TrEMBL record:
Pfam families linked: Epimerase
SUPFAM superfamilies: NAD(P)-binding Rossmann-fold domains
Lineage: Bacteria, Pseudomonadati, Pseudomonadota, Alphaproteobacteria, Hyphomicrobiales
InterPro entries, sorted: Epimerase_deHydtase, Lipid_A_modif_metabolic_enz, NAD(P)-bd_dom_sf
Range of residues in the leader sequence: none
Residues covered by the NAD-dependent epimerase/dehydratase domain: 6-199
Organism field: Rhizobium bangladeshense
CDD domains tied to this protein: SDR_e (cd08946)
Protein name: NAD(P)-dependent oxidoreductase
């Protein structure tokens, strides 16, 4: 007999894929919702007959009808989740998986993050605590272009110049299929203890790098940004509701980005045996682009700028290093890729070690190192030329280096 799995919020972005994957793996899936066989909505008392015999409940449903700062007793997301979890335990269900978020914090800027944190606290103090597993999910991408992923994909493809907040904020992408696989493991693996798990990339990348990945994977060119303050972004959100042909942006999403802070996910991924793919590779494959082309071209330009005739081994080393450090794509313009010597205008000062271009050039230098002829020394004349060039270019570099920060 197929194990029985209950999923709430099964018509949403994550829920639809989760339900499909569970059925593919042989589960008898029962969907809780207003438009499903088990008529239920968050806050309702679930029927005991619907819960009995289930191996697990995965709770994704969330009501957006509750006021921003509703009292805990009147917030159905809190009371409804605890009610469902306690009913599941009373019915003999072994595991209750609550889909939370990496924005779950008491000081989160967005209501969603604060609400998720409050739900986690209430579940930990409830009678259902022994069967609860928390899944804090990162920035989900892939699949149908809906939800936050769809919005970001549309915005990144609109124009090569994008006004945006939080460009230096770190985000942790995870593919939709990887989220679904992680949730199913939490629901079925009896060896996992009741605790919080983080489903997100172990190495965070900047939000600016993430938007560039989205644009490149759609076959578009480079993406440049106009940094804007949070107050202006919130005002723009209100304007998107009035203007046609522009994606509507919920202020909650903007606040979520503005307050984004990475969570450590390495241990969770190892426990769940999840090996997350490179987002650029995944998206490029989904959207029909050549996955290695942008990184390979940029790697070649960086190596040529350092005076190397790139070998296949050097290109492979550097491309892998750029991906591993979240620097792929770096976002070099087609002109710079075609004429790498122009990178001299954008190279940051030596003390700017956290600058994206500086980090990329450091990796390029490491990629060359094994083949470098150690006994070949630069002549005095070449050294003087290099130093003189650096001095002359200093004002231009100070002006332009911010472009690839």
């Amino acid at each position: 007999m197929a194990p029985r799995l209950i999923i709430t919020g099964s018509t949403g972005y994550i829920g639809t894929r989760l339900a499909a994957l569970a059925r593919e793996r042989g589960f008898d899936v029962v969907e809780f919702g207003r438009r499903s066989e088990a008529k239920w909505r968050i806050g309702d008392e679930p029927a005991a007959s619907d819960l009995e015999g289930a191996a697990a409940v995965i709770h994704l449903a969330h009501s957006w009808a509750t006021g921003p700062e509703a009292a805990e007793e009147s917030n159905i997301n809190i009371s409804g989740t605890v009610k469902l979890a306690e009913a599941a335990k009373a019915a003999g269900v072994s595991r209750f998986v609550f889909a939370s978020s990496t924005s779950s914090r008491p000081e989160a800027l967005n209501v969603y993050g604060r609400t998720k944190f409050r739900i986690e606290q209430h579940l930990a103090a409830s009678a259902a605590a022994p069967i609860v597993r928390i899944a804090r999910i990162g920035l989900v991408y892939g699949g149908p272009r809906t939800a936050m992923y769809g919005l970001m994909a549309k915005l990144s493809a609109l124009s090569p110049l994008l006004p945006m907040i939080g460009l230096s904020r770190k985000v942790q992408p995870i593919h939709l299929d990887e989220v679904a696989a992680g949730l199913l493991t939490l629901a079925t693996d009896e060896s996992q203890p009741p605790r919080a798990f983080v489903l997100a990339q172990e190495r965070p990348i900047s939000f600016a790098a993430w938007l560039r990945i989205l644009r490149r994977s759609q076959g578009k060119g480079n993406l440049h940004f106009i940094p804007i303050p949070l107050t202006a972004a919130l005002l723009a959100c209100r304007m998107t509701k009035l203007l046609p042909l522009i994606p509507t942006v919920d202020p909650e999403r903007v606040l979520g980005l503005a307050g984004a802070t990475p969570m450590e996910s390495g241990e969770s991924l190892r426990l769940l045996k999840l090996h997350l793919a490179d987002p650029l590779v995944m998206l490029s494959a989904e959207l029909g682009q050549k996955s290695g082309e942008p990184s390979q071209s940029e790697a070649k330009a960086l190596l040529q700028y350092l005076g190397s005739a790139p070998t296949e081994m050097q290109l492979q080393r550097l491309s892998e290093g750029l991906r591993r450090e979240g620097l792929a794509p770096l976002g070099l313009s087609p002109t710079l890729i075609k004429h790498p010597r122009l990178l001299a205008l954008f190279e940051p000062p030596a003390n700017r070690t956290q600058h994206r271009l500086a980090r990329a050039l450091y990796l390029a230098d490491l990629a060359i190192e094994p083949e470098r002829q150690r006994d070949k020394k630069a002549g005095l004349f070449n050294a003087i030329l290099t130093i003189s060039g650096d001095v002359l270019l200093l004002p231009l570099r100070a002006l332009l280096a911010g472009r690839y920060r």
